[in-house]
Amino acid sequence: MKALIKELVEAYGPSGSEGPVREIIRRHVASLCDDCRVDTMGNLIAHKKGSGGGKKVMLAAHMDEIGVIITHVDEKGFLRFAGIGGVNPWTLLGGRVLFANGVKGAIGREQPKSPDDKPSLDKMFIDVGATSKADAPVGVGDVACFDRPLADLGKRLVAKAFDDRIACAILVQVLRELPPTPHDLYFCFTVQEEVGLRGAHTSTYGVEPEIGIAVDVTIAADVPEGPHMNMELGKGPCIKVKDGGMLAHPGVKNLMVATAQRLSLPYQLEVLTGGTTDAMAMQLSRAGVAAGTVSVATRYVHTPSEMVDYDDVLHSVKLIVGMLRAPIELG
Ligand code: CO
Ligand code: ZN
Fold this sequence. Notes:
Elements: H1 2-9, H2 19-29, E1 35-38, E2 44-48, E3 56-62, E4 67-73, E5 79-84, E6 96-99, E7 104-109, E8 124-127, E9 143-146, E10 151-152, E11 156-159, H3 162-177, E12 184-190, H4 198-207, E13 211-219, E14 238-242, H5 250-262, E15 268-271, H6 278-283, E16 290-298, E17 306-309, H7 310-325
Parallel strand pairs: 3-12, 3-13, 13-16, 14-15
Antiparallel strand pairs: 1-2, 2-12, 4-5, 4-9, 6-7, 6-9, 7-8, 10-11, 11-17, 14-16
Helix pairs in contact: 1-3, 3-7, 5-7
Bound molecules: cobalt (II) ion and zinc ion (ZN).
């Protein structure tokens, strides 16, 4: 599974530019589902039919990652930019970006007026090695992601886009391991989550599921002076109770807990004080969907060096497979 993870996290795919990621996933899932289509927004929807008598379940993992978009090119060829999604300026200094056409750039900052000046995106620029506006190989509207390879530390992995390619990898692996089930399953690899859950809005409306399960990262609090939250690396999949955008459906949450207990899998309950996932959009679709989230505890979320625990990844696969292969009754 590590080869799949490496392929996915190193791919280029800021919000709105998910094409390369979609092609990788399509290549892996096409033979594992009954049909595989791309909707108007760009969501990839892989349908695995059930044997009958089960539930209609949608699973969502977002393909997009945060990035930057060029807003202006000056006479010397320096590029000004805005964030796509939640880009924290502290994480950019000294970093590198990669554009769709393969151009790479270094991120610089205007000379601070005082030592206390905080970095802000409007005081930063990208240097692609151009000497003038005319020879800049990218321009206004071009989009870049962070440029950083996967580092395999053994038990722990570090990469630029575990949010949310680790979930894309988990859902591909679920499709690989899942035996035939009674349930009608829609594996949705969504677009534009980082800019407002936009792909999940439309794909859920189209699929019209009874149950929605998002897979995403959550904040690991087990770092020096970390926030007062429960989630830690290596303690198992996080079963969402609440985040900044939703309260998980109790039936879905309880199903996840019962499945983890039945299979003797480690798990942790997640109450995240800010942020949300595609499950929020799923929950509010049409007349409402019973929605929940399986999260992978992740350190340094929305930086070019997000860190996950590999055992958590494998246990997340087992939890989801275990949930889907059994009859589902929401209490
Ligand atoms: Co994110
Ligand atoms: Zn995410």
